[in-house]
Amino acid sequence: MAEEENQDVFLQENEVEEVVNQDENEMEQDFEENEELDQDQGAGGYHSVMDHSVQGFFEHKDSVFCVSMNPVKTNICASGGGDDLAYIWDITNGEQVCQLTGHKDSVVSVGWSFDGNYVATGGMDNQIRVWKSESGVEFITATETTDEVVWLSWHPKGLFLAAGCNDGSVWMLSMPSGKVVQVFYGHTAPTNAGKFIPPGVGKRLATVDDMGTLIVWNPATGDSECRMTGDDHRFDPGNEETSAGWTSFDSNGDGNVLFLGGSSGKVKVVNINNNYILASLETQRESVEAITLCPVLPICACASVDGTVALYDSSSLKFRRSLYHGQPVIDCVFLPKSPYLLTACADCTIRKWDVRSGQLLGEYTGHQEPILCMSITADGKRVISGSDDTELLVFDCEN
């Protein structure tokens, strides 16, 4: 994993910790003004909706838990679900390319290597399974871990795959051999999220768990370079009444600053080079399910079960605004090289926002039950979503 020159420092180390709270009266007023978003929406949004999809895939027989677009072939998608199966399929015609079998329980994570030639699946049966799809589809390896697989993350420049498990262990495999090259032990609770950082380089591997611990690993040696826990009350994602863990995170372009979302709604901003807590952002009320940083503007988006997406200035760490949804927001992702944010909501709707103004630009419907996952094509033209209704739908997000 070759070293690359560091870019400009994202935040200065001498910045003081700051707690950001949105005024409670302002929040109550905003929620009241947006209550109409809940009208005519039954539990889970089960009502007659207009179908805006341009294509779909309907082979799954149970809830679709994960979906991932090939980063090179913009028409090829992989998905996994509660039917213990994963599929590779074509989003242009909805046809099945290959059924990926071998799991004995739900497939909860799926992902492609940076070159688009390998696809991996992780299941509740403790298995990591990998296929090569360069020309045709060839099974490569199956690795039995020590507990249910929670997440997968491919290295952004190499053929290394990381996976986090329910027992806190983190595994790293090398392709094409399929050999386990590292098993990281350090978490004592389920690892809820993990990824190689910084984006596009992957010098380090960051992982977070359900007890509020962050560990940054050296992938080559297996050593931990940074460890922060809830024993430091300033870093604790919970509050006086309840304990909490970290559910999601994202890093800046240099990989030295992480934005971590907690199950209580708190977001902590930390410099992992010196274990310095830069800010505690406390605008949202419930679990932060996804965090993403805008590729063209200093804006961080945090999607929460409380039905909001909070936008912060990722340089000054000041609260900007909330984007209101009728029900829990499951995921959020920026379109490539743009200020446009897509959000996936439990009300069965994907929405497109301009984060500069907070304007709602579009709504894409078609699912009959809550959306559980989404992925965008590498060119940013289409979004694919999976749902409790067992369907995957393709939407044109340019309109």
From TrEMBL:
Composition bias, Acidic residues: 17-39
Compartments, record wording: Cytoplasm
Keyword Kinase: no
Database matches in InterPro entries: Apc4-like_WD40_dom, WD40/YVTN_repeat-like_dom_sf, WD40_repeat_CS, WD40_repeat_dom_sf, WD40_rpt, WD_repeat_multifunction
Pfam families tied to this protein: ANAPC4_WD40, WD40
Record key words, sorted: Cytoplasm, Repeat, WD repeat
A GO CC term assigned to this protein in UniProt: cytoplasm
WD repeats by residue range: 57-99, 100-141, 322-363, 364-399
Region feature Disordered, mapped onto this chain: 17-45
Residue stretches making up the Anaphase-promoting complex subunit 4-like WD40 domain: 142-184
Chief location of this protein within or outside the cell: cytoplasm
Name of the protein this chain belongs to: Ribosome assembly protein Sqt1
Organism: Schizosaccharomyces osmophilus
